[in-house]
Amino acid sequence: MNRLDRYIERQMRDTEIRDLVEKEVAALQVGIQIARLREALKMNQTQLAARAGMNASKISKIESSPKNVTLNTLTRLALALNRRIEIDFVPVGERKVAVARNRRDTVAHKGRIALAR
Q1: Domain regions of the chain by residue span
Q2: What does the pLDDT read at residue 95?
Q3: pTM for the complete prediction?
Q4: Who contacts 60 (Cβ-Cβ below 8 Å, separation ≥6)?
């Protein structure tokens, strides 16, 4: 374990910092999931935007930094991707955060927002 790993481990012990990290990672996961679904359907952002009735810059913003995306917007995107949205409330005790050895591989799980079939 290197110094960066030890630093991250210490920071994640602080519940306030851990909560902030979890929220950020959860938001990013939504954007990543939308981008992966779009790519799996061999669509570009402009095509998805047209199907969802929004502009391509909004798709780009959602995929890269999906902060404060409304449920209505997610629903429009899900339908454009031929999917439906499932929201699952998970007890706080089941909250997990794993910090991988590679800082780019930070992973969190806290209440799921899934775009699924």
Answers
A1: 3-116
A2: 54
A3: 0.65
A4: 45
